[in-house]
Each structure stands twice: as C-alpha cells, then as structure tokens.
Design a protein that fits this description.
The protein has 460 residues and is α+β, with helices and mostly antiparallel strands. The protein has two domains: 3-206 and 377-450, no CATH class; 211-371, no CATH class. The chain is 50% helix and 15% strand. It has 19 helices and 13 strands. The strands form four sheets. Strands 8-9-10-11-13-12 form a six-stranded antiparallel beta sheet, sandwiched between helices. A hairpin with a 2-residue loop joins β6 (219-222) and β7 (225-228). It starts with a helix and ends in a 10-residue tail after the last helix.
Amino acid sequence: MDVAARTAAGKDARRQAPRSSHGAWEPADDRPDPIALLEAQATTRVPELVPIRHGRMALSPFAFFRGAAAIMAADLADTPASGIRVQCCGDAHLSNFGGFASPERELVFDLNDFDETLPGPWEWDVKRLAASVAVAAREQTLARRVRKGIVRGTVRGYREAMRALAERRTLDVWYARVDEHELARHVRTLGGTEALARFERNTAKAKRKDSTRAFAKLTQHVDGRPQIAADPPLIVPLRDLLPPAQAADYETRMARLIAAYRATLPVDRRVLLDRFRFADMAHKVVGVGSVGTRAWILLLLGRDDADPLFLQCKEAQASVLAPYVGPSRFAHQGRRVVEGQRLMQATSDIFLGWIRTTGLDGRERDFYVRQLWDWKVSADVEAMEPEALALYARLCGATLARAHARCGDAVAIGSYLGAGDAADRALAEFAEAYADQNERDHATLLTAIDAGRIEAQTGV
C-alpha cells in the first residue's frame, strides 16, 4: 500500500480499538492464578534454582514485575488491539533497555533482552513498558499525579518518535540508532551539567566492562592455567557438576558444539571465532525472570592465556506470547531470539548465534549465544530521581518505537496514535490500573511463600 492507504488503515484501526479503550484494565473472572503460572514455568527449569527466582521476585513489586512476563502476557491477550502487528520484544520493561558496544566500538542504547520476542500487537510492548514505569515510580513513592505524568511522557516519547519515523526514508529508519553522542545531547538538554557529568562517569565505567574485566573477576589460575572460579550457587563450573571423567568427556564435545554454533555466524565472524580456543565453562545464574533456565558461560582464549573471550549460552524456551499469538515460524527457539533481536536492534553483538544440544540431564534444548559482557550497562531504575526517571522512560519509549518501526508499519501505527495525546492519557490510565494488579500479584506471591506453597531463597 502507498502512504495514503497506510495512513487511512491506521485511522480505520481506531474503529476496531478506539484509543480510549486502551485505558481499561479489569482482571477477567477466569484470570489464571499468577502463582500457578509461575509454577508451570518452574517445571521446565533447574529445580534447585527456582527458589532463587521466587526469592528475587519477592523483593519488591518491581522485582516481581520483571519476572512476571508470562503473567502479563496472559492478561494482555484479553486487551484491545488495533490489529497492527510488529516484532514484539515481549518483555519491554524499563530494565530491559540499556547500553552496550556496537561492532564499531561505540556505546549504543537499545532494547537488550529478547527472550520472549515474537510477532504480535505493538500495544503489548507499549503497555508492558508503560506499566513498568508506573511500578518503578511507585517504588519511589511518587504521587499519582507525578507517576501519571511520567508514564504519559513515556508513551508520548513512543508516539512522537513513531510519527517522526513514519516521515523518514526506509533506509534512514533502518540505520537510526541512539549512540553515546546522542545520549549525551539528550542528557545535557534535559538534565543539565550535573546529569551530564554523571552520565559520562557511568559511560566510562561501562566501557571497562568487557571480557578482560570478566576475566579478572570470574577466573582464577590453577597450575598456571586460567579457569572459571566457583561461586555456588550462582556460578558452578562444569568440573563441579560432574565426576572428573564425565566432565572431561563433556569438554571434548565442546569442539562439536562450537562448530555447530559457528555455522550460525556470518563468514567473517567464523574466521574471528576460529582464532579462539575453548578453555572452560560454568553454569551461571542470571537476571530475575530468567533464573532457573540453563545459562552457561564459556571461557575462550585467543593469542595467549591473557586474551579472553567470554560467551554466554542462554537457554531459549518458547516465548510467553506464543499461547496467544501462535508459535514462532522458527522451530529453533534460540534462532527465534536471535532473529528477533537482529530485527529490533539497530546493531547487535557480533557473536550472536544459536545452538541445540543435549544437556546434562539427557534432554535436548535450544540456546542462543552472545558475549557475556561487552560494555553492557543497565540503569538503576529504582534509585532514579523523578526527573531522571522521566528522561530515561521517555528515551525507552522512543527506542521501542524505533525497534517497532524497523519491522512494522510506522505509518499505520503513527496514524493510529495521532498527533494528540489521547493514547498517552489512555495508556497512563492502564499503567496505573495494572500497577495495582501487579501489587496484588506480588502480595499473592508473598502469601504463597509464607504458606509454604512455593519455596523462596532470599539473599542470593
């Protein structure tokens, strides 16, 4: 369709889902028990790590929200949608945005978690982001008026960015990204010199977080050779998980596994990977919602024992969106994550790939692979001052719009949203109502823990 037809289609979609309809949230009479959903997820996870997940989710309503993507996906399935689809992140909350290194060695800001990515309604990502802002603002005990203003600013950031992208050439949209210089400009304009100085300090810190830093922090030398140091239950080397003979046999399989992963990389990255050799591996607990899924870190060495590359192999299960939008067109869940990430991110990790392997329990599982640390930095959302939270949330909104515009119809979405603030106001109402629901669900988790229905391990 031409631009005029796409614009008309966006406006026509308001008949299917009026913008004001997005403000409503009321749990369905047959709403699934949130604890039952967590218990269902636990059945496919490492049993001894599930209590750590529950313990981390119990810490606060925001921590619970981070781990509750499956719960919110079930809720969003019953909400109005315009019928315009994009590649969804599936878990677009505030803490799943951040900085990392581009292949050109520039710090860029983007979405950085795609475990749940799948094509679906663009509204679902925006609603999860908006709700996360409301939940985070409550952690700071901000007044309702202030919270709603920040959420409205977040949605406005999405709406205005989407409408601006709708006016740009196709290649300009594809190449658009937020780099360090663009970030600094935003911070200086909206936050002043003090905010800029803080940003520059954080940027310098992020640039020190790479494989060399991971090598210094995570390894030890034994008999003159580097190996990953144990820190159970968060980091458990393979040698501590299996008898010596079995561990040695598993390590010999790594050549075949790395070769299979290598085949998913572009040719130039294969040449680069070939310059490294496998040295060690360990199981590592990561995140909040991801705790209990299998995640391994691999230590590879290049020209000598002081030239490290750390890769993370993270289990990829079916997206939490799949029951409501259908399964991925990719049979391999690791590939689903990688392909979705490449679609949504302006630039991606050069070692991004996937692998299928049989685990220690004899079951076949899918994984995706990326660098463990590569200038990765995340904002401490719960500690932000209101002005900083507003700035950060609006940036996340605009970044989500750019990700959706790469793979969806920016013209139709921008036309649907319109030049006015009708959608901003409606989604702010939804975010507040869903933050109430999240608090009720968090309280339900605490009750389930106290009653012994589920086990939680805190302080880990």
